[in-house]
Amino acid sequence: MEEEHSRVGKMKNDEILETFAQSDMVLVGLGEDFDGTGFLRREEMYRFGGEKLKENGFHWLIPAWNEFCVKKTGNAALDAGFEKLAGILGGKNHFVVSVSMHSRAGTVGRVVMPCGSSQMKQCVEGCEGTLLAVTEQDKDRMNRFFEELYAGRFPEEGFSLSETCPECGAGLVLNNVYAENYNEAGYLEQWRLYTKWLQGTLNHKLFVLELGVGMRFPSVIRWPFEKVAFFNQKAYLCRVHEKLYQLTKELAEKGCGISKNAIDWLGEL
Questions:
Q1: What average pLDDT is seen over the chain?
Q2: CA 257 to CA 4: how far, in whole Å?
Q3: How many CA atoms lie within 13 A of 29 on its CB side?
Q4: What is residue 11's predicted lDDT score, i.e. its pLDDT?
Q5: The model's pTM
Q6: One domain for residues 56 and 67
Q7: In angstroms, rounded to a whole number, what is the distance separating the alpha carbons of residues 11 and 16?
Q8: Spatial contact of 161 and 58, defined as CB atoms under 8 Å apart
Q9: What is d(CA 20, CA 2) in angstroms, rounded to the nearest whole number?
Q10: Rounded to whole angstroms, how far apart are CA atoms 213 and 35?
Q11: DSSP states of 61-97
């Protein structure tokens, strides 16, 4: 689809905030920027650990590994970004759709995380009835395992979570899209609430805010958000991304694209 660049960079932050303040409802999309991978990719031990996890079949640990490494490197910008967003949304009728799997994404208000996170665990075989909260014992195990990994050592015994599936006795893995048999039941109730909320946005002043949303899962946020902004005559779309900030031609007069890291942009508001 032909893209329009004419409005990129022309909206100042105070103008955007004024439009936001005048809105009745706010729809937010949180993207990959909020996993912290942008700055983590520069860290040698982060890359080493990620490669080892994939080589040994532990893809489902990647969201937890990302969070561990964010804390290990002492980068406070991500936490500040989550806090700033939660503050901005306070008092607003809003819903957040997050493809970020960072646990903080679940604390910014009314939110659905269709890609899962590191807060729940499921049966490795995908038994639908098995969804359990990650325990403190699990967190301690992961931290010890990640410390070894960050030091450049992959433990020979590998890694396992506590408990087994109460339905089939198989092991458990973190409930996210990296699991081979991802159990989507973990987010479906929130998704139903989201779709019901979304139906109520028509004919209301709707501010649609995309923050750091790339093309990893475009069918979850980017394309549906464009459709929402197009059909709602009172909608305004603000798309913030370092590279993929462009708006479609059809939306050029109903929004703006900001070429900036979403977390850095939030820090400037």
A1: 92
A2: 10
A3: 28
A4: 64
A5: 0.91
A6: yes
A7: 7
A8: no
A9: 27
A10: 11
A11: GHHHHHHHHHHHHT--HHHHHHHHHHHHHTTSEEEEE
Q: 44: domain range? A: 39-74+118-183
Q: What is the DSSP letter of 114?
A: T
> Do both 254 and 269 map to the same domain?
yes
Residues 143 and 161 occupy one common structural domain:
yes
At 152, the amino acid letter reads G
- CB burial readout 62-73, b (16+ within 10 A) else e: bbbbbbbbbeeb
- Residue 214 CB partners (closer than 8 Å, separation 6+): 31, 32, 241, 243, 244
Let me know whether 28 and 88 are in one domain.
yes
Q: What is the pLDDT of residues 16-64, one digit of tens each?
A: 999 999 999 999 999 998 998 888 888 999 999 999 999 999 999 999 9
Q: List, in sequence order, the alpha helices (H) in 111-206.
A: 136-150, 185-199
Distance between CA atoms of residues 191 and 27, nearest Å: 14
Question: Total domain count for the chain?
Answer: 2
Label the pairing between strands 172-176 and 247-248.
unpaired
Same domain, 92 and 23: yes
